[in-house]
Give the backbone structure.
Amino acid sequence: MDMTEVDSGGSISRDNPIPTPPFWGSKCIERVPLRSLVAYVNRRTLYRFQWGFKAAGRSEADYQAWARAEIDPIFNRLIANSEKQGIIHPQAVYGYFPCQSAGDDLIVYADPAGGEVRCRFTFPRQEKGRRICVADFFRPVESGDMDVVAFQLVTVGQQASDYARELFAANRYQEYLYQHGLDVETTEALAEFVHKRIRTELGFGREDARSMPDLLKQGYRGSRYSFGYPACPNLADQDKILELLDARRIGVVLGDEDQLWPEESTSAIVVHHPQAKYFSV
């Protein structure tokens, strides 16, 4: 494969195939059945970190057996209750946009022919190591090729946060802990669900890892970078995503300190490049 050295000194392929999106612009998923997300919930993170069920000296096999008997029923009860009462209301907007890179910037165009610029994102570059940034994974302006970038925005709705606060106000702290943890991890599960759809629509979903644990460890082509993390730390840039995706359709706005509202919402830029994986800056 012909490898082109980017100006930063990192080695990123610039001849990877550019997938053809099924549409340009954005699409709204008004409701995702909660049961469709259960398989995408990272139960290891939910049980051990959100809910605090530690191994406490158990072997991994013993912990899994114990979790199936003692913790899974809590999970199943919360899912059933959330469905019955409409507590969690998963919604999403996502879309595909023509783009090119220019140094540390990603330029998003209004049309695949180029011309009018919708917005521009500037990403930080590593000071050491490969010295890469997110923009390096897209075709540069000088290549003459038009690339594609996907954006996604998901939420489980205001009802989820309101219900968790009601539990806290009623001094039902254990139940609050359970519900809040479930809300957080269901939001992440929804992000995985939408990302899976994007990979499938771009034509390389078949490359995904077969097991869910492996999939949740980035067992797929490309990467999903959420704003607020090292590769794209500027939370204010989410305002551009909200405009691109017409986030009003699912009731998501940018609040104080550039945080998304409702609270359990998350946005991301989805990169199709095979070499795109998580990295620190």
Summary: Confidence is low (pLDDT under 50) at residues 1-9. Helices lie at 43-50, 60-70, 72-85, 158-169, 173-201, 212-215, 238-245. The CA atoms of residues 51 and 177 lie 7 Å apart. Residues 173-201 form the longest helix (29 residues).
